[in-house]
Design goal:
Number of strands: 16
Number of helices: 13
Protein name: NagC family transcriptional regulator
CATH topology of the largest domain: Nucleotidyltransferase, domain 5
CATH architecture of the largest domain: 2-Layer Sandwich
Pfam families: ROK (PF00480)
CATH superfamily of the largest domain: ATPase, nucleotide binding domain
InterPro entries: ATPase_NBD, ROK, ROK_cs, WH-like_DNA-bd_sf, WH_DNA-bd_sf
Family: Belongs to the ROK (NagC/XylR) family.
Distance between the termini: 32 Å
Helix content: 25-40%
Bound molecules: zinc ion
Radius of gyration: 23 Å
Strand content: 15-25%
Length: 417
């Protein structure tokens, strides 16, 4: 701790902890992705509405950032055409974002188009050399992890702290991990994001996390005050959903299921995360699917989580005799069937055709996926559903939650500065 304190103080003295321009004007201490309802494709949703000039400025900045994120390179004229903003406005916004080291000119020019007049334009892209983002993941069973990323989401460094149980995670250990990760950042810190398994409100307060045993913990404000940096706290499944959408194979209409200590889900509709009345959209784990008697930690019987979470399935594997592969397959087919039943109504209700399932390979494998796919498609195929619903394993590695959290930090800070 002491060594980290020294590193932190040194970093602060060198200016590494000074937040992005305009940080002092932050009004909100944290914003969950779900509460924002943001989507990279929905940034112009205020078009046509009466918006104050600040909203217009923020929307233009985010629209330009999003069209370049993570690895795009376009001329100002191309940006102007793609987002329908005048050349003059694009040039003005880009100039300010270059001054803030959010965008940069890459020294290359766009190809001239035969038959089209006009000089070739210099390409702009995300500046990956100046700002760093700190992303933490509190959703693992025996470790809490953090990474340093650049503005394109590329991971530059990582740190972790081992824990005996998720219930050992408290605010002090999260602050300690933040310090560790910040000390490894080569650039200035753009913002901090923390992914939490549970319900998070629009201020970054963790309303309820059964895994961590937290209730009403104002994590975003604590971290923001401790480090004098913008902080966003978000649901872990929503973070993973965003990673699958923007760094993986996800479609704009996507249901993401995370099978881990519990069952989490995130829903993306037309590029925007669905949040719901209580920021709890996707909390499907404690929905009763079958009339079975499996007791659940919530007090009910037959919840999806009680029979489908990793500890429950592994406990059933443990009851089998050694080498009983048929028994194992039966358990996984049963789990796939339950999941398929649980998802069918949502698929029809929302017209979603892409379902990504994330979890350990001994559970989320072809046996479970194939049965879930059969059940979903048997129950939902119709004339208005011309192609089968794609039910697939999410192939992302262990960094999925942290990479998704990086996109939450970007949206949070770009809206705040
Ligand atoms: Zn339950």
């Amino acid at each position: 701790m002491k060594e980290d304190d020294v590193l932190l103080r040194e970093a602060a003295e060198e200016g590494a902890l000074v937040g992005p321009p305009g940080m002092g004007e932050l009004h909100s201490t944290g914003t969950s992705a779900s509460a924002n309802g943001f989507g990279f494709s929905s940034v112009l949703e205020t078009e046509g509405m009466k918006a104050d000039p600040t909203d217009v400025r923020i929307n233009n900045r985010i629209a330009i950032f999003n069209i370049l994120f993570p690895h795009g390179a376009l001329s100002r004229a191309q940006v102007s055409r793609r987002i329908g903003l005048s050349r003059a406005s694009v040039s003005e916004v880009v100039a300010s974002m270059i001054d803030e080291h959010i965008l940069t000119e890459n020294g290359r020019s766009t190809e001239s188009v035969p038959g089209r007049r006009g000089k070739r334009g210099t390409q702009i892209e995300i500046d990956t050399n100046y700002w760093n983002i700190i992303s933490l993941d509190l959703s693992q069973e025996f470790v809490i992890q953090g990474v340093v990323s650049n503005l394109a989401g590329q991971i530059l460094a990582r740190a972790e702290i081992s824990i005996a149980s998720p219930k050992d995670v408290d605010v002090d250990i999260v602050v300690e991990l933040c310090r560790k990760v910040i000390s490894k950042a080569p650039g200035k810190i753009f913002g901090i994001g923390i992914a939490v398994p549970g319900v998070v409100d629009s201020t970054g307060t963790v309303i309820d996390s059964r895994n961590l045993d937290w209730n009403n913990v104002p994590l975003a404000s604590i971290i923001q005050e401790t480090f004098n940096l913008p902080c966003t706290v978000d649901n872990d499944a929503n973070c993973a959903l965003l990673a699958e959408r923007f760094f993986g194979d996800g479609e704009p209409n996507l249901i993401f299921i995370q099978i881990s200590m519990g069952i989490g889900a995130g829903v993306l509709i037309n590029g925007s995360i669905v949040s719901g009345t209580n920021n709890a959209a996707g909390e499907i784990g404690h929905t009763i699917i079958d009339d079975d008697d499996t007791p659940c930690v919530c007090g009910k019987h037959g919840c999806l989580e009680a029979s489908l979470c990793v500890p429950a399935l592994r406990a059933r594997f443990g009851d089998l005799s050694a080498g009983d592969t048929d028994g194992r397959s039966d358990i996984l087919r049963d789990a796939g069937e339950k999941l398929g039943k649980a998802l069918s109504m949502s698929v029809s209700l929302l017209d979603v055709t892409d379902i990504a399932i994330y979890g350990p390979a001994d559970i989320v494998n072809d046996t479970l996926i194939d049965r879930a796919s059969e059940v979903v498609n048997e129950r939902t195929m119709s004339v208005v559903q011309p192609r089968p619903v794609r039910v697939r394993r999410c192939e992302f590695g262990d960094n999925i939650v942290m990479q998704g959290e990086t996109t939450c930090v970007l949206q949070h800070v770009l809206r705040a500065i």
